[in-house]
Each structure stands twice: as structure tokens, then as C-alpha cells.
Write a structure and sequence with these properties.
Mean pLDDT of chain A: 96
Oligomer: homotrimer
Number of helices of chain A: 13
Radius of gyration of chain A: 26 Å
Low-confidence stretches of chain A: 430-434
Largest interface: A-C, 27 and 35 residues
Chain lengths: ~425, ~425, ~425
Amino acid sequence: MNKAIHLGEEIYALVSRLYPICRSITGNGVRESFAILSEHIPLQVREVATGTKVFDWTVPREWNIKDAWIKNERGEKIVDFKKCNLHVLSYSVPVHAKLSLGELKQHIFALPEHPDRIPYRTSYYKENWAFCMTHRQLTQLRDGQYEVCIDSSLEEGHLTYGELFVQGKTADEVLISCHTCHPSLVNDNLSGVALATFLARSILSGEPRYSYRFLFIPGTIGSITWLALNESKVRNIEHGLVLAGVGDAGKFHYKKSRRGDAEIDRAAVHVLKSFGDFGVEEFSPYGYDERQFCSPGFDLAVGCLTRTPHGQYSEYHTSADDLNFVRPEYLGESFERCIAIVNLLESNRVYKNLNPKCEPQLGRRGLYQMIGGHEGGKRKELALLWVLNQSDGEHSLLDIAERSGLPFELINEAADALMEHELLELCESNGGNT
Amino acid sequence: MNKAIHLGEEIYALVSRLYPICRSITGNGVRESFAILSEHIPLQVREVATGTKVFDWTVPREWNIKDAWIKNERGEKIVDFKKCNLHVLSYSVPVHAKLSLGELKQHIFALPEHPDRIPYRTSYYKENWAFCMTHRQLTQLRDGQYEVCIDSSLEEGHLTYGELFVQGKTADEVLISCHTCHPSLVNDNLSGVALATFLARSILSGEPRYSYRFLFIPGTIGSITWLALNESKVRNIEHGLVLAGVGDAGKFHYKKSRRGDAEIDRAAVHVLKSFGDFGVEEFSPYGYDERQFCSPGFDLAVGCLTRTPHGQYSEYHTSADDLNFVRPEYLGESFERCIAIVNLLESNRVYKNLNPKCEPQLGRRGLYQMIGGHEGGKRKELALLWVLNQSDGEHSLLDIAERSGLPFELINEAADALMEHELLELCESNGGNT
Amino acid sequence: MNKAIHLGEEIYALVSRLYPICRSITGNGVRESFAILSEHIPLQVREVATGTKVFDWTVPREWNIKDAWIKNERGEKIVDFKKCNLHVLSYSVPVHAKLSLGELKQHIFALPEHPDRIPYRTSYYKENWAFCMTHRQLTQLRDGQYEVCIDSSLEEGHLTYGELFVQGKTADEVLISCHTCHPSLVNDNLSGVALATFLARSILSGEPRYSYRFLFIPGTIGSITWLALNESKVRNIEHGLVLAGVGDAGKFHYKKSRRGDAEIDRAAVHVLKSFGDFGVEEFSPYGYDERQFCSPGFDLAVGCLTRTPHGQYSEYHTSADDLNFVRPEYLGESFERCIAIVNLLESNRVYKNLNPKCEPQLGRRGLYQMIGGHEGGKRKELALLWVLNQSDGEHSLLDIAERSGLPFELINEAADALMEHELLELCESNGGNT
């Protein structure tokens, strides 16, 4: 637990470093962020040129921004991009003009229901410019002339994404994906970016059975781009998780893959349940990049892990999703769940009982109490009996954990003990890319 | 809605015209009723001769009645068929006799638990005669001589039924069946007879995908007769509904077909749910003509739509099932549900997403909002995403409506929009008689 | 009901005769018990030699005991095997020694939470000796020298079990198994032994469709021995029940077989439900000999019938499980349930409706009321309609009882009536060892 808290603080520190950078679906803010991630993991940074066709989409022009402001008649900056990068509609085209208040208001987004928050807005695929500000400030603007400036560029360039592949013992892959396109928003999704980074670091330090592919990509266009350019790799993906919104105080939620009963779905639910209260959401084709991974042409077993789900907290996509909204302990808890899910997938094998006719005599192998007559039923012995009873080559350890109601870890330890005593064998067909 | 109310009044007016006629499973009352229906729809009236073998049954002799009464010693008619045709046991053989009160009582049916109602009773397959009267009147009869007269005939003749076939674009049929054998009883089943008539008129005015077959038949012997004489047509019946008891104030109930998960079962439940509170009953081999359509040798996908189910209201099969018990607005609501079920069946196709790998870019097609960042999730856009995600050639629009929790209509409109933009294609194997 | 009470008393009388005998998994106490059972049924007594290999196990040495006691310094017997055979750890090796109180306590079992009960303990597979006594007595023991004596023998010999095979019309078998290894414990499991005896007697008096095999075996090693020595017979076992704990006041519980939806599982649940409140337990590989019958190499359709389940009553495996804990009426109720389950299995056939197109005319066969119009729905007529509707060669009478919600008996009687009228035929493939 101490380790989880400590890790939570490390993850939070990374989030804090990434926070001030202005990211979008393309541009230098993304590259700057990947440079920081590269201090932790050997990230491959990929550049895909503007205009590249990716299925029904086209990689857009690259957007960069240096500055932006609104000045009042007295020349005072009343809105300043340098103070908060949410002030500018992402992908705003350059503008420098004088406008009346009425004209200016055509280019302002605010949130009347949260008057002190700056909203986050984007216009990637339609040329536009706008500012975002608090509703309080908007209502205080007096009639008059305003000078607006957005010193941005929208030019041929690249879409930048990060990828890290960890070779495991098999070619079967676990995909971990997070979106990197948001500017100064913490829970959505610097929390996911930083968690994926530390998860990658942890997996790099082991010798996993599965191969792991981490994607740090802009939402929607990033997953579409990766899938379009890597179609041949898709069939290796056995299990996948999209990580987003993993730093707030809310309870955990797992959103199932389109398949609904994939191993990742059952694994995530089993793990979250073992830690306490949690929520499950059925698949819907709205949300994060699971939308693309679960499109019918791929139908991958990719679910989504969050704390409070997508859009269900009022701070979502506003300036209130800041460094106070996310806490180290929540990030640490998220790391724990992810590692437990990974461990479950790694250990979830199908075994065959080598002594399938009646129970083997566990007592003489030191696996069972020798004084009979009192109600045993100790969980450890029960786990041994369950693994023996269900290991007919058809049931995985997760199947057995679910049927028995015992924790996966206990079932896994029982399988290990029975393997040691040569009472089980691993089914060969299991764990390969079938 | 106004249209539904207006239609409810038209349906009620037809019910009112049919009400006074004395119908039974055969006879001139049925012919007279069909003459009225023929003013609304081009009904084919069929005559099947007495003695015709229909599976395990034989078409019975034709029953007609001119008059019936009971006179007391003073020659006063104390029971008069001309005042209420329920007074005579249906299929009573002719009788003219003088009896003591004790002898008379052997031939009287009454309802002690509802002393002011005349019960409805029949004896189609066993020769008998009897009168039905209120329990109150029965208890007031004094000892003495009574003269009884039933001026009926039971002779070689025909069983008469009505049929209307509407040719659609495919040979696959939707069967709509109602029973026409009851005398002056309104909810059971002039409500169903009149509703089926107006439903037929509505379908005749369109260009339906399915063919529609409307049957106006006496209960049990009528469906057995039709099935026996039309066995070769049975395999075209894809979906079917028995309509009965659709004019009372009770909430709607759908009784499932023997199959239990047929498309008609799911369609009816989806439609009733979309209108509000309703009940579902599992199939049982008791009730209306679904008993015959769902016999194991046919096992048709035929359910039954009622408001209060069969036998679950105290007015059932008594003189209290009259023109006050049924109201125009309830008939109008029943018409609305039926049309919605028909529309769902007509539109329930399987499509294939032509851009199955990742989402297509809906924004540039004008199907999706262009400003991102705020929680969209508008139902219309969600419907588009659901149709795209699930249209893999395996899921019908009803499947998608059920999985998404969105109304069928919205899903159907989304499919139409996607078809217009050439993002979907219709699966050819769908909608044919497979 | 009187018959059940009378039988309960007979069963209780048998229990009472068996109670004083000191049984274990081997030895003369078992033989003595089988001699008593043989007064009721033609039991085959089998002897399997020490050292016989049975799967992963070896038949142990035979244990016999003549006497055992603990004397205090004054030579008074403070613990006396002859007063209660639970005082000795079953399979205790012989000992005769003087010990200090401290040394003695290393060889004492007691129950602090039930200070007036003697616990039941065994050590079959590890050489050991010990006494069991009440906690109250243990706490009163003073320091000093104690003389202990266990006059037992552990020698080459046999494991003794009883078997009774009743040849039925088919080779398919119903297995009834109970464990005979416990000394003076009544509910667990003299209740099961005596119930199985009377069940066997009842079945011997009939002409059953199934063959029946009754096993009276020591727990665990007995079922393993029987299975190992009779592997070729195992595939005839279609259904099975382990009987244990059937004499206490608790409500009935049925523990499902590993398969979970076998015919015996559904039959037992249907019967218990028809009698009132009851509990169902999912299979677990802990409990009685269903552990062995349901091991993955056999996976037999064997469930377990108890009243209060295994280990869930405080008297379990203590001297409080005595002749007061079990009552004749509870044994009688258990007999009733068992017979009803057997009758259900015997009658559960698949039929085919010979008039599958529409209903046959039941009225002219005297199977149906002749006056129509009033709400019939009498259960007997409903049962006829259900059997006709569902008898398509796919559904057994139990399937029909479950779907209709009607009692199996009523469905069975309906099938009999329809067979008499040649409206049904028995499906030939049914009831054979497929």
C-alpha cells in the first residue's frame, strides 16, 4: 500500500510537469509532452504527415500557437492565453482584428451554469476562431471596441503520436491506450497518460507472457490513424484497455468492450470487485477511443477504465479539471487496479487435472489437513479442490474464480501448488494467438 | 393524437353498429356483420359446408335463431331474446314447452356473484337448450307453470368467415386475426373486429413490404378451419397478432407466441414499452386463437394483443361488456399501438456498415456537431453511432434499438440518414421468406 | 401422510438400533451395521483388501477397537469409550501409558464453544492417538498422573461396503449413495443410511423403469474405491443422489451436481418446491461423496439431498448429533421427497402429440367441459393443453411442468389420459442410455 501511495505521488509529479503545456491533436505541445515521457520510458515518437488518408479520414494540418489575447479599449489584456491555454478554441485560425462587443460575442464560449470556469472547446475540422472565458467575466464586458489576437498557425505538418512495444513471451498483445490531445486538463487525460507511462515502466521491468503495446495518441484521429497504418498488427491484440479519468476521487468504473464478455471484461470486473465498490457500464459507441477499437470492422476486446466516467463530473472539460481535482492517492489506487488486471491476464491459464478420477490424496502431499471430522472448508483447501474439479481443459483460472466466488489470486496460488506437485498440466493451446 | 382520437371514434361507431346483431360460430348474424365490414374493406366472405373435416374437428351445423322467450302464468314475457340476445344459450336447439319452475331452473344460467348481469354461455358441440338471466330475476321467480320458446334452427349449412389479403412487396405475411363469434359483447370481441377492420383499411392505403392477411373467424373452429383449408399458405406467415379485448380502460398486455422470442414478440414489447406502462404474459395454450396458430404442428410466431387480458375483468362474458365498458379513446390508443407494431415490422431490416473500420467522419457529412469538447451525446448522434457500430450484417434495427435503449423510430431514422449518405447497405438476405 | 409418519418411525427405529455401534471407514462396526441392514434388504457386502490401489489412494489398514479409557490417580475411569465411542479419535493407534496432565493434553480434543459436547475427530492417514471429551471436563482436570489405554488394532484387513443393485427395465441407473463411516452420530449419517435402506425396500417392491444402485460406503475412500473397482459400470449412471443429514428439523436443501442443470438437479428442485420452502445450493467440490462422483474424470449427474446442509448446524460432528436431534417425522418427510423424486425420474418421458395441427377436440372425448363461455382454465384441462402443445418430441414432462408452472404429477396424469385416447405417443429414443 505504501508502494501504491509512493507511486501515486510519482505519477502526480509527472502530471504536474505536463499540465502547463498546450497540447492539441497535433503540434509542438504534443512533442514537448512526449519528450518528458521519454525520460521515463523508451517511447517511439511517430510523425504522420498532413494529408495522409486514414480510412474515411485525412490527417489534418498541424496547429501551433504562440500567443492569444483580447484587449479592451484601454489596451488592457482581459483574456490572456499565457495565463490559461483553455482560453483559445483549439485549432483557432490566426486572427488580429478590432471588434465591437456584439461581434466579439460571436466568438466567445462560456458556461452560464458554472460562471467561474473556463470551458474547453475545439474546432478541428471546421475553420473557426474563438475565445473561451468565464461566464462571470463575459457578463462584465462593457460595450466598446475590443482588439483580439490569435497568433496561431495551421499548416502542412504532422500528427505526432507515441508508441511503446514491450516484447513478451508470446506475440499476443495487450493494448493500453490513452489520449494526449488535451491542453491543461488533468483528469481528462493527463491522469491516463501518466498512469500508462508508469504502467509501461512496471511492465518493462518484468518478463511478461503477453506483449504490450502502449499508445499515446490524440483522441479519435489518433486511434484511427494508428489502426489505418497498422492493420496487420491488429490481429495480435487479444486484450486492451483505454485509460482515462483515473485521478479523481470517484469510484472506479469499467466500460465493457463491444463483445461484452471478453476476457478483459471479465478480468477488469473481477479485479474491481475484489477491491470493493465499483460500477460497470455496458458498451456504447460513445466515449473514448474504444469507439474506434470496437468499430465492427475490428471489434477488438478493448474496454475502458475510468474512475468517474466520461462526462459525468461537472469539472469535465473545464478549467476546474485542474491539479486540485486529481490527487496522488487516487492515481496510486488506479495503478494498483491496472497492475492487478495485468497480473490476472498474465496468469489466466487453462489447466488439466492429471488425476481427474476422484480427488488426489492431498493430505499425503502436505496440501490438506490430516485431522478430519471438524468443518475444514479453509479457503486455501477449497481453492485446491476447485482448481482440481474444474481443470478439465475447458475452464480458465478466471472461470474457476468466478464459479467458486474465491479471489483470482487464491485460485492462481492453488494452481501453482498443484503444478508443483504434478497434479496439473498447462493446456498447450492456451495463451497462444489462436 | 387528434388523428388517433378521431379514429377511435370511427372504430367505436363501427362497434356500435355491430353490437345488436346476434352472432355465433355460424349463422346469419355473422353474414350480416360481414356485410357491414364490407362497407369499409373489400372483405372476402367464405362459406365452408357443414360436415367438412378440419383436422380432428368437423364443421358443425349452422345455427340460426328468430326469437326466444319465457312467459309466466299470466302470459307475460319475463325473458325476451329480442331485448338481449345473451338470454339464449348459443346453439340452443328449438324448444316450445310448459315447465314447472323446478324443471325450468335446469335450463337457466345466472351469476350469483354479479346479480345484475346476464351471463354468456354456449353449447356448440352438445345438444342442449337454456336461458341466461340475471341472478336477481332468477331469485324472484315464483313457483308455477312457465312457457318457454326457442325458435331456433340447427341445420346443414355453412360456417362463414371473412378474409382480406393485402399483397405486399414480398410474399412474407403478417397475419391479423380476430374472432367474430360473440353476440352482443363489445370488448370481447367487437373491439378486435372493428380494430382489425380499420387496421386493414390503413394498410390498404400504403405500399407495405409485407403482405397482410386479415382473418375474421369464429373462435377455435374458425382458426382450425382456416388452417386446415389453407395449409399451403401457412409457411408464408412470418409474424402474427390476435386482436381481442382492445377497447377497455385497462393497460395493454402482450401475450407472447409459443416461441417466446420471435420478432413479433420483441416488436410488440418494444412498442408497448415506448408508450408507457404495460404487461407481458408468457405463452400459454389457453386463451384465443393463438392456441391453434401456436399448436406444435404449426408453431407460428403469433402473439395476442389485448388491454386487460382474457378473463381478467369481471365484465368478461357478461352483459356488462357493453357499449359503456368500451370507449373510443381506448380503441384509438389500441390502433396507435398496432400501427406502431406494423411500422416496426415493416422497417426492421439488417444493414451492413460500408465503412466498418473506425467511425466514418460524420462531421463533414453534416451529420455531427462540429464544435467539440462539450458533452454531446445527443440522442440523434448516438443513434447514428449505434447503427454504424452494430450494423455488421448480424443485427437488425430492433436488435440495435434494444441494445442501445433508444426508441426504434430514432434508430430507423438514423439508418435512413446513413443510407442516404451511402454509409450503409441493406443486407439482401433480409426480409425474404427464408 | 399417515404412511409417511409410520415409515418415519420405522426408519427411526433402524437408526436407533445402529446408533450404539462404533463404525469407522473400516472394521467390524461396519460389518455389524450391515448385518442389521441385511434384515431389511438383500445387501451385498463387499470386502476390499488393505493395500488395494484405488486411483491415487490405497485402501488403508483395518481398524478395530475393544476398549479405551483414561484413569486418574485414584484409578477412576474419567473417560470411558464404552460410554460413548466418540471419546476416541477414530483410527487411534493402540497406547497404554502414564502421562502428566500436560502430556495428556497434547492428545485431547474438546470444543470450548460447546463445553458440554464431545467432538468427533479422525486421523485415518496419519498415525496418531487421542481422546475427545467435553470442554467442561477438560477444564476440571487437575495436575497429576493419568493412565491412558486404547485397546485398538490397525492391521492388514479389509474395507467393507454394502451394495444393492435393483434391475429395472432399462440398464440406465439411478445411484443412491450414503456414508456409513461415522460412529454414534445420528443425523450425519445414520439418517441417510436408514433412509436409503427404506428407499431400497420400496423400490424392490415395484417394477421400476430405471435400474437402481444403492451404495453404503465409507466417505471419500469408499466412493473412490467403488469408482476405481467399477469403472465400467459408471457410464450407466444417469442420475444420482447422495443422502446425508436427512433427519433434523431444518428445511430441505438440494445441492446441485457439477453439471448444474442435469435432470436430477431439475427433478429435485421441482419436487422440493412442490412441497414448500426449501433451499438450493450450487455445486462446490466440498461436502459428501458427490465430490468424487462429480470429479472431472466422471462428472456424473449426482446431487446431494440434505435437510440442514453439511456443517451448518452446531450439533454437526459432536455428541449432540444424537437420537434427540433427529425425529421420526423428519425422516418420514425425507422419505416422501425421495420417493417423489424417484417417481418423477421414472415418469419423465418425452412424448409426441399425434394430432399436432391445432388442438384435438377434447370435448367429444370427455376430456373437456362442454358448456363454453365461462372462464374454464381448470388446472386439469390446462395440463392437457400444455402436454399437447409442448409434446413435439423435444420437451419432457418435466420441461412442460416447469414451463407451465403446474405440478409434475398433474402433467403426468394428463399425459396418461392423452395416451389412453391415443393422442400421444412415447418417443422411443427417450429413456435409453443414449
